[in-house]
Predict the 3D structure of the following.
Amino acid sequence: MPDATPRPLRRDAELNRRRIIEAAREVFGARGLSATLDDVAAHAGVGVGTVYRRFPTKEELLEAAFEERLEEHVRQIEAALRAPTGWDGLVCFLRVAAETHAADQGVRDIAFGAGASAGRFERIRDRIFPLVQEVVGRAHTEGSLRSDVTAGDIPVLLMMVSEVAHRGGSDRPGLFARYLQLLIDGLRSDGGNGDLGPALGRADVERLVQEWLPSGPPRR
């Protein structure tokens, strides 16, 4: 019987693969998922045909470049659930998530489900939302979070803050932290009692994501 074990890539081919993955992290991290495989090829210093031989679809390249980072994002949310109080856990999660999304547009777009339909990422997002619900529920139980805030509000708040980070200008790279703190203060149970209107469900959040962030079929 012939040996069915896949042959390892030649050294130069493996170097090209690593170069492409690193270029993808940098390009998508700086520009978000609206960047193209042509952009990645140019940044990696290889022909676009080389990119397509290694990664026939944009989703495959995104998965290779970002799966580990998304898994780390999940671990950060899980760590927030181990904080001493529900409020500490919520604030920890918001700060870490905001900093992650501010530093990397690719992670931000994938975490919110914008323009990345790979099944692996969908499964990761399906793990994230219940964790956010637990973080919010724990803060509700202790009475530190205003009662009309739901888990569906959290992705929208983070999108707002990340937009400040990515559109606030290079002269104020940390500007998003100011508005994050304002939002955190407004989430306290004693921070205000104005009517927020109907709460957002998960379907509402997904619709907003598709309207605000990159969507549609992957571009080259």
Observations:
- Confidence is low (pLDDT under 50) at residues 215-220.
- The chain has two domains: 10-56, 66-212.
